[in-house]
Amino acid sequence: MRRFLLLPLAAALLVAGCATSLPDLPADAPVPARFKEDGARWTVAHPAEAQDRGTWWKPFADPALDRLVEQAAERNTSIAEAGARLAQARALVRSARADRMPQVGLGASASRGAGANTPSGAEPATLLQADAALSWELDLSGRLARAQDANALDAQAREALLQSTRLMVQAEVAQAYLALRALDAERTLVRETVRAYGDTLRLTQRRYQAGDVAELDVVRVQTEFSATESEALALDRQRAQLEHALAVLVGEAASEFSLPPIAWSTALPAIPPGVPGTVLARRPDVAAAQSSLLAAQARVGVAQSAWFPSVALTGAGGFASPELGDLFKWSARAWSVGALLSLPIFDGGRREAGVLSAQAQLDAQLAQYRGQVLNAFREVEDQLSALRLLDEQSQAQGRAVDAARRASAISETRYHAGMVSQLELLDARRSELRNRRQALQVRSAQYQATVGLIRALGGGWDAAPSAPAATKEHSQLAAR
């Protein structure tokens, strides 16, 4: 008889031993041998989602930027949300680990009744019980282990997403701050131009009143003065919006946050062209996609385990007595042990649907992972090409600024000598202002692309800052 009782357990062990293994993952997305832009070599490396991204903003040598990034790390709401989701994922790992451990509980009950199933028959009687229960599911098919592995991989993905969120917020703070400082320099240039046009307008009005010039000359200067003043107000509006966006990034109300204009002295770091390929492997979003892919693979195994039987061992021991005073006497002891074998025979295709769903999720995660890798390569190439072309554009724009300044100076000399009209002088000044503003915008784009490349490479890197940017553009358009 004992042999027959052990047959279900032996059958469960035999079936579990025949459990299928997890499917092999297809090949990853192809890794290019080198950067297209600078020929730096790529190497295959495992992402390090928990690795420190470093204080990559320090080479910009701007104390105000340092303070803003540190404040964002403490108060940014996106970082706080990602941290809470990581804590939630870690709690799920603990819950899955607990499912593999024996479960112990204490219980007590009191009941009173009468009937055929009570000790006193038709007479009402009281039954008091106090016991401890033990249960433990034998993970013969590996279902619980794979569920724990999947949750642990989800937690790794959340940890990588937290690192990705930190890097994203740091980059957004740096880009917003640098754009604001570039806008301050542009506003200074335009405001000085407005003052120069204002002086010219007042001088032209006096000459018109004295009969030296025609009314058309006054109208032309008035047009340039008003148009440039309108551009200055548009830049003020853009600055206000950037300041408000920066307030949200550092966790402050826009109404209580202000960043006074100062001279733009932020250094522009030069990233060496031979950045190792291992830096890209540290991208936290790629690490998150990889962990999610492995978690989906583990859940395929969980779904496959539903085809195999589950075995649970149970035990209980305690005391039962009709009298409270006799409840804990040795004669009132009671105990039980048992084993439960469960194997669904027909479920209408539920288990098969679960496997197909898990496999489809695995396919989706694989496509997402490949897309993340390809997108990472694209972002790096975008920023490398942007920096190369912006450097060439900066040199060309510098030559244009020099030529425009020279043309403006010559036109002003010729105008005072009576050799050209005021319209030609205004055209020369307008061209100089446009080219100087474009030079500032190209400089700002270089900062944005530098931060974008650092973010695309996954954060930390080593570099020495280049010479600081020009502190202020001074207008030389004052009329005489």
Automatic annotation (TrEMBL):
Instruction: Please provide, alphabetically and separated by semicolons, the GO molecular function terms listed in this UniProt record.
Output: efflux transmembrane transporter activity
Q: Where in the cell is it found?
A: Cell membrane
Where primarily located?
Answer: membrane
> Cellular component GO terms, alphabetically?
plasma membrane
What InterPro entries does the record point to? MdtP/NodT-like (IPR010131), OMP_efflux (IPR003423)
The protein's UniProt keywords, in alphabetical order, are: Coiled coil, Lipoprotein, Membrane, Palmitate, Signal, Transmembrane, Transmembrane beta strand
Q: Which residue positions does the secretion signal occupy?
A: 1-21
- Which superkingdom is the protein from? Bacteria
The membrane-topology field of this record reads:
Lipid-anchor
Coiled-coil boundaries: 423-450
NCBIfam families per UniProt: outer_NodT
Q: Which family does it belong to?
A: Belongs to the outer membrane factor (OMF) (TC 1.B.17) family.
Q: What is the protein's given name? A: Efflux transporter outer membrane subunit
Q: Which organism is it from?
A: Ramlibacter algicola
